[in-house]
Amino acid sequence: RLAEVRNRSEALCFQTEKLIKENDEKLSDADKAPLEAAIAKAREAAKGEDADAVQSAHDALEQASHALSKVLYESQADGAGGDAAGGEPAGATTAPDDTIDAEFEVKQDED
User: Fold this and answer.
1) Average model confidence (pLDDT) for the chain?
2) pLDDT tens digit string along 49-70?
3) Maximal CA-CA distance, the chain
4) Which of 8, 59, 61, 100 could form a disulfide with 38 if both were Cys (CB 3.0 to 4.6 A apart)?
5) Cα separation, 63 vs 57, whole angstroms
């Protein structure tokens, strides 16, 4: 279990660092600081032998990563020119012409 948790934690550290680097110009230091601290904490916990501590640090990093994704999504929506408070989703009027709007139904297996 420890090896599995370490691997997931390290993968999340890598993904989060990549996300920070790819969006560096869009992020303030205040946005990056909690992520960098969570990455450091996750890597430090992974050096130990306590799987619960590694999992806890992983979960904290995951929450910080989700917060970053939200910030990026909001900044992207603001940049699209849409007004999220106007009742129409941000970016709805800037969709490319080749977008297909479809309805679907999820069917459950009867096994």
Assistant:
1) 80
2) 999 999 999 999 999 999 888 8
3) 54
4) 61
5) 10
3-class SS letters over 23-57: CHHHCCHHHHHHHHHHHHHHHHHHCCCCHHHHHHH
Question: How many Cα neighbours within 13 Å face the side chain of 10?
Answer: 8
DSSP state of 91: T
The domains of the chain, with CATH numbers, are: 2-82 (1.20.1270.10)
- Which SS3 state, helix, strand or coil, does residue 75 take? helix
- Give the amino acid at 29: D
Amino acid identity of 1?
R
pLDDT value of residue 80: 60
Say which residues have a Cβ less than 8 Å from residue 63's Cβ, sequence separation at least 6: 38
Q: Which amino acid is at 98?
A: D
Q: How far is CA 88 from the centre of its chain?
A: 24
